[in-house]
Protein: Intraflagellar transport protein 81
Amino acid sequence: MSEQLKFIVEQLNKEPFRKNFNLITFDSLEPMQLLQTLNDVLAEIDPKQSIDIREEMPEQTVKRMSSLLGMLKYKPPGTLSDVDREAGQS
Structure:
């Protein structure tokens, strides 16, 4: 997992994102900050995604991001029931 985090941080620090994260700062981001970071990455692909997620209803954020990820042919691992089951274990 740490190699994946290191890779993510390295990529986010490069153009076009220039986030200036290190492993500690990235790991300490709050969930909304992580979601905004994902949104910022998606906005590089589709400028219509450039939005402050605090100004959007959570359901709309999910719908908007899921729609774009679907267009990009992203297949999330597992199924929704797998996610629900894992969330119950936390």
Notes: Residues 1 and 7 are 10 Å apart (CA to CA).
